[in-house]
Amino acid sequence: MRPPGGRRMRRPHGSVHAPIRTTNLDIDVVMLRALDALTINEAAQTTGWSPRMLRYIERAGLLELRRSAGGYRLYGPAQLQRLRTLRELLARFDFGLAELGFARRLRSERRLREAVEEWFETEPARPDFIAADDWLRWEQEKHQALIAAATNTELREAA
């Protein structure tokens, strides 16, 4: 932007919300841009959440953010309020972000919600083809096979 008088306006480096200053031979002009959103670092400083945690909260679907034209996250007053009330909620009920993220998934994913409900309602039962005195050994072998399969999958993915 060029103001009357032809001098280019400058904003201090790294400051999205700083005043735009320009000098004219006769006067100093200060044009303030309306403060409508904070960057991730400003939001972190304001809320006490680290930028890394703010990104995690967004990825977990616990906060929806606008983006600037350049793709930067923008935190407005509504997002700051959600972050404040999120911290209060976690402290009041003594649970973590991962648990809240899972609760959000339960609300939005019908198949997951049904599977969890089914798991809670199902009573453990010995398979008919397993003798009562072999049930413990059978469960142990099944767990060992699942762990081995998971380990092999992790090794293949790492290679």
Outline:
With 159 residues, this protein is mainly α. It has helices at residues 40-47, 51-59, 77-93, 97-108, 110-121, 135-158; strands at residues 20-23, 28-31, 66-67, 73-74.
Global geometry: elongated
CA radius of gyration is 27 Å
Percent of residues in β-strands:
5-15%
Which architecture name of the domain at 40-120 does CATH use? Orthogonal Bundle
- Coarse structural class: mainly alpha
Report the average pLDDT across residues.
84
Main-sheet strand order equals 1-2
Low-pLDDT segments: 1-15, 28-32
Helix content: 40-55%
Oligomer kind: single chain
Largest beta sheet, briefly?
Answer: 2 strands, antiparallel
The run of helices and strands is: EEHHEEHHHH
CATH class categorisation of the domain at 40-120 = Mainly Alpha
How far from one another are the termini? Answer: 52 Å
CATH topology of the domain at 40-120: Multidrug-efflux Transporter Regulator, Chain: A, Domain 2
Number of separate strands: 4
